[in-house]
Design brief:
281 residues, alpha+beta, nine-stranded mixed beta sheet, globular
Length: 281
């Protein structure tokens, strides 16, 4: 009789930890690290971003749901803070198609019609619940998260990534330039285009396109959305107001075959160099 796998630890194989100075990125390896992830998410989403917690979240001071049990959890660890759960300073939740089938859903499906994505015949990966500790919100930590995602994509031969990304606040007109720009310049092709659920659909075309200062809008976009766009990412049709999390959400889609060969060579080189630079144990 084999032992049951701890909740939230789903990967059969994982990429080697990548180290950069006192920082490292890898998948969670224990239930204690999953708990640390949920505690970090609570601090960022509820304490900082003023999301509305459920009674359970308020009591436990943890952001958690049923999808945590089937997901892989990417961690950025600051070893200057130790090697235990207290050192977890960044995270991303990764859910493959088979894992979502076990849970009965992808998170994104609660806001967007993803029928066209589900019909995609390749390997799917949903990205979500991304956050970084306020004291570690710098370029290096964000790059490490993306490098970890790149390693995961290579490891599992992912063909298409998608997920929800957020603009701050729940007033669409306050982010009208960003929504208008994203719709007109980065709308997903019809075959892989998520569409906001009819009862939650917020029109993205809110301003005259000619009135937009493209550079100004790009500077206003959250780093996460800009990261997707740098990968050749697209947005779905329609935004969704998430009042619980105090955000305006858009669906993001990235086909990994649209990422240029140059980009792949760049990441492969960075990953190889990172491994070469890792201190001997």
């Amino acid at each position: 009789m084999t032992a049951e796998k701890p909740i939230g630890l789903t990967a059969e194989v994982g990429f080697a930890e990548l180290r950069f100075g006192n920082l490292g990125v890898r998948l969670a390896q224990s239930t204690a690290e999953i708990d640390a992830v949920q505690a970090l998410r609570y601090r960022v989403f509820y304490d900082e971003m003023r999301a509305t917690p459920s009674r359970l979240a308020l009591r436990t001071r943890r952001d958690q749901d049923d999808l945590d049990a089937v997901a892989d959890h990417l961690l950025v660890i600051d070893y200057a803070l130790g090697s235990g759960p207290e050192s977890v300073v960044g995270t991303y939740r990764l859910i493959q198609r088979a894992a979502a089938q076990r849970a009965g859903r992808f998170y994104t499906a609660g806001e967007f019609d993803i029928t066209r994505l589900l019909a995609f015949r390749g390997r799917l990966l949903e990205l979500g619940r991304s956050c970084v500790d306020a004291e570690h919100r710098n370029k290096m930590v964000v790059q490490l998260l993306w490098r970890g995602i790149a390693a995961y994509v290579f490891e599992h031969r992912i063909d298409l990534m998608f997920g929800c990304a957020s603009l701050p606040g729940t007033e669409p007109d306050a982010v009208a330039p960003e929504l208008t720009y994203l719709y007109h310049h980065h709308l997903a092709p019809p075959g892989i285009r998520p569409v906001a659920l009819a009862d939650r659909h917020v029109e993205m075309r809110r301003l005259d396109l000619d009135s937009l200062d493209r550079r100004w809008v790009l500077n206003r976009l959250p780093p996460l959305i800009k990261g997707y766009l740098r990968l050749g990412g697209f947005v779905g049709d329609g935004a969704v107001i998430d009042r619980d999390f105090n955000t305006t959400d858009v669906a993001m889609v990235v086909k990994t075959d649209l990422v240029t060969d140059k980009y792949y060579r760049h990441y492969e080189r960075q990953l190889r160099d990172a491994l070469d630079d890792e201190p001997d144990s």
